[in-house]
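RESIDUES AND SHAPES:
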Amino acid sequence: DSMLVSSNVGLHAQLVAYDVTQNDGTNVGFNPLQTVAPTQTGAQTWYAGNLTIDANGNIKGTPVEFGTVNLLPSDPLLQHTYGLVGALIIEPERARWQTDAHSYAAATIWPDTTDWGKPAFREFVALLQNDLAIGVSAFNYRSEPYGMRYPSSSLSTGSGSPPGGNFSQKWSNTLVQADPQTPVFAADAGMPVRFRLLSPGDKSQNSRVFYIHGHGWEEEPYEAASTVIGANPRSNYLGGVQLIADEAYTLVLEHAGGAFGVTGDYLYALFFPRGGPFGAWGVMRVSEPGMDAVVINKVGANLATAAPFSVSGANTVVPQTGAFADQVTVSLLSPDGQPSIVGTTTVNPTDGSWTWTSSEGILVSPGTIIHVESSGGGKDEVALGAVPPPLPQTMPTSAGGK
């Protein structure tokens, strides 16, 4: 506890090739100093592949699709606990990509610009932070501990009980009426997905199991003498992977939504306890092909009087474009099925959130269905009388950064 965090920084990349005396990012032995002091800048050069020297002394490069690569700080003891980590993703050699509008950790990848017949895939970078100074676990600088989803803050350490002892709501939006602060990754049903899972910096004794509900992947998805990520029929097939400090994996999912492309929310998480009480979990949201997904999170309505009411929720991006839809349309469906359009509202282009509030009182009855449809094609609806109750006064605000 008496050690201070170094103010000098460096960046050490795994797997790639480079001149160790210039581009290692750490100060080692008699090599020249490579860290950067405050107010200074530095540059490093890496090669995404293997370098060899032939009999004539010529350097030959062989490109390798390494996939997921940890970027580690020069101080391996303390800097990662304050967030000084990163990820390098090595794509297929002739790939083109489009990152999502709100995040560099999600993208659509076209693997070969010389062969457009090869299907595009969705890519999600899940950077695990399991040794943070603030005591929680996180993905991509975001955390969602139990204590932020139940009124009892004691659950943040794994103790205590939720209301009525119902732990089933720990993964649900029922109590907080919002998505988790951890990444919500969006994919078309049936579309290939690559999860880039990595853990740059952790305690050496920490060994965690990561899983994605409803999905499996090849343990060794490599082709062409392990220079290309693809399909390997000789590989074992897994539904979870053990992750320790400084490990990185590319999890190749053949189809979002499983073998049958079922739409819905799929949990990704570390196995208990780090995946719940300490916040390392999130959602992969699978939508109909070519559409976004829309979720109604909260409805404020008074069924007794004709009073103004509001509806709020969130959209995912349209996976093929990486952009959020412009607007959603809110409609009421009476118990006898008669529709009436109430209004439209814009979608926040930075995070996909939206809220619509009626300008005047509207009288609705129990059983009325609130139907929301996005200009991106996604739909959701909820029946009044089945909406989540108001938040408890003791409910803390969800944790997490952007």
